[in-house]
Amino acid sequence: MTGETIPYIDLEKISEQFECNKLRNACEKWGCFRIINHSIPLTLMDEMKMVVVALHDLPMDIKKNNKDVIPGSGYFGPSVFNPLIESVGLYDMGSSQAIQDFCSQLNATPHQRQIMETYGILDADFEDWPCQYRINNYNFTSETIGSFGASAHIDSGFLTILQDDENVGGLEVMDNYGSFVSVAPFHGALLANLGDIARAWSNGRFCNVKHRVLCKEPTTRYSIATFMLGPRKGNVEAPKELVDHDHPLLYRPFTYEEYRTLRVSDNNDRDKFLQACEVLELLRLV
Ligand SMILES: O=C(O)CCC(=O)C(=O)O
Ligand SMILES: [Fe+2]
Predict the structure, then answer these.
(1) How much is the pLDDT for 261?
(2) Count of domains forming the chain
(3) Which of 26, 68, 96, 130 is positioned for an S-S bond with 7, CB 3.0–4.6 A?
């Protein structure tokens, strides 16, 4: 253990050079940082949490109505490798039809729908990138302490914004030295994780952080992940400013869909999908 904790980025100061350098360093060294002083009201985060609890209180039969839109986007339940996690998902938050389908599959009330839409609007507009929501529920008991709620994995997209549980810890991220570091709960803060697309786009400069969730206490843990995946159209390709003699192009240009197909076909079930995988190696040039 190195004893280091993950960086904090203050969004109110992001126009200042110091904070900007901290952000860049966090992306390069950690691929992960806490976001404080963001513009999402605490009341909205708390209301969203209540919606999440209510949706997970639904009978499993109803949750199973939440079907995949793209592979792996819908409901998945406890499995052999990840027996403690259950999750519903929405792809993509920018489509009112997709929200409509999600809400009717889960019998969401107009109020719940409104909360989800308000929560989603804050990020669904980014460069017309599709955003995927995953609403996770970890069923932790005294018997499961020490086992994994989510096995170690790297997210596929560019950026994941996570509202992790404000009370229940267990999330761990891998540091520069290969040790897992706990992320302490922080009510009102968000967590940003960079995934494989960020690593490819940055020509290998940004870290695609490996992370996992460990059961530490016998209580239900909830989290809401917003995955900003990748461009809907066009290639993921490093900008020319990031490619030079000392930094040759590491990955061939590819579409997010191509990446996703590789990841899903290489990992033909959910358990494998959640594990760290080496799809980027298949796209590597040097
Ligand atoms: O539950 C968490 O805190 C992490 C969830 C996660 O890593 C994911 O959904 O990809
Ligand atoms: Fe993740």
Answers:
(1) 83
(2) 1
(3) 26
